[in-house]
Amino acid sequence: MKGWIAAALLIALAPASVWAQTVDYAKSQITFAGKQMGVPTQGHFNRYSVNLKFDPKQPETAKIEADIDLRSIDTGANETDTEVKKPAWLNVGAFPNAKFVTDAVKQLAPGRYEASGKLSIKGIGQDVHIPFTAQATGDVTVFDGAFTLLRLQFKVGEGIWADTDTVANEVQVRFHLVARGALERQAFAPVRRCLR
After folding, report:
1. Cβ neighbours for 178, distance < 8 A, ≥ 6 positions apart
2. What distance in Å separates the CA atoms of residue 151 and residue 193, rounded to the nearest whole number?
3. CA-CA distance, 92 to 86, in Å (whole number)?
């Protein structure tokens, strides 16, 4: 009995690995592209935050949270920026942020992964699957990914703007994140491991 208790304590006090990255926002970007009257349009967001915990050796333990300030949208045209912030579009007065939180991350191939989770825009949550790559050099990891969202699922473009002949339903979202991080050691793992 004493031996079991000693072993349990050793497990409880063993250092736990945590892979945490810090995003270099000056070198990163989140962009989007769509079509209006068949003409390609594009833009980006100037303010957003991303929390990353990603270990390429254990991708299933990854956690990704992204919070995008929709008020920082930049389409390259002030008139358009003003319009898309209105209630019929992003309604930034009531819903200033879009958010993505992972439920699961899996590896598809060496260096290729897929994040599944909930994307929320205008208070509407939808399940999405986002393929991405992760390339590490030293303590720098570059994440690149893209996925297509359907704007009408989030009621982006209501009323007359729901006409997909005028504004396409498909919006391509891309991200390029440059992050620094390495395996760190916690002083102690949670003691509850040996109390169950």
Report:
1. 23, 24, 27, 28, 140, 141, 142
2. 44
3. 7
Q: 22, 181 in Cβ contact below 8 A?
A: yes
The label of the residue with tokens 């994307």 reads: 119
Kindly state whether residue 28 falls inside one of the protein's structural domains: yes
Is residue 56 in some structural domain? yes
Q: Give just the sign of the alpha carbon dihedral 166, 168, 169, 173.
A: negative
| Per-residue confidence (pLDDT) for residue 182, from 0 to 100 | 57
Whether pTM exceeds 0.90: no
Domain that holds residue 158: 16-185
Cα 112 from chain centroid (whole Å): 16
* Tokens read off for 166: 């005028």
If one counts the domains in the chain, the total is 1
Residue pLDDT, tens place only, 87-114: 999 999 999 999 999 999 999 999 999 9
Decide if 194 is inside a domain.
no
- Residue whose entry in the numeric block shows the structure tokens 């999405």: 128
Does a structural domain hold residue 3? no
| pLDDT tens column, 98-154 | 999 999 999 999 999 999 999 999 999 999 999 999 999 999 999 999 999 999 999
Domain with residue 68: its CATH number is 2.40.128.110
Whether residue 3 is predicted with pLDDT greater than 60 in this model: the reply is no
